[in-house]
Amino acid sequence: MSRSSTRDLLVGLFVLAGLGAIAYLSFSVAGFGRNSNGGLILFASFDQTGGLKPRAPVEIAGVKVGQVSSITLDKNSRARVELNLDASLQLPVDTTASIMTAGILGDRFVSLQVGGDDQTLRSGEEIGFTESAVLLERLIGKLVHNVNVGGNDGKEKKE
Predict the structure, then answer these.
(1) What's the pTM?
(2) How far apart are CA 82 and CA 126, in angstroms?
């Protein structure tokens, strides 16, 4: 084997290692391959998800503890969100789930506020206290409506 063949082999291995690193980073950034955070599966029902998507983070006090596995409709036409959380979590039964937005126009995520009950949620149970997403469009609509009503000294327009 000549000296240039060895160099070509090393360059080829280096290129393969680089492509492997790029593929790993791409899957990591996309959130694939880490669907299982340990197995504490909880459910939460919301009236409005506001664009929450599967693989959205679930946080407690700003720390990621899991992700949204799936979003489906339940029999009452409410959004049923499956949360895949770290199995080491001990969440009281009065834990609250809220859909929040990162910044004004950021991505949606689920925020859990830990309660104080002695009993804990087990895998497969439902979080009883939920707060749906606040839609910016509705807030602006209410603000515009209130400004219009306030501009007429509290009298509504008659058509």
Answers:
(1) 0.68
(2) 9
d(CA 29, CA 70): 19
pLDDT at position 92: 94
CA torsion through residues 60, 62, 68, 73, sign: positive
Residue 81 has a CB neighbour count (10 Å cut-off) of 26
CB atoms inside a 10 Å sphere around CB 36: 12
pLDDT digits (tens, 9 = 90+) for 135-147: 777 788 888 888 8
Instruction: Quote the CA–CA distance of 28 and 86 in Å, as a whole number.
Output: 18
- Of 115-119, 140-144, 148-152, the one with minimum mean pLDDT is 148-152
108-113 and 96-101: which strand pairing? antiparallel
Cα–Cα distance, 80 to 66 (Å, whole number) = 16
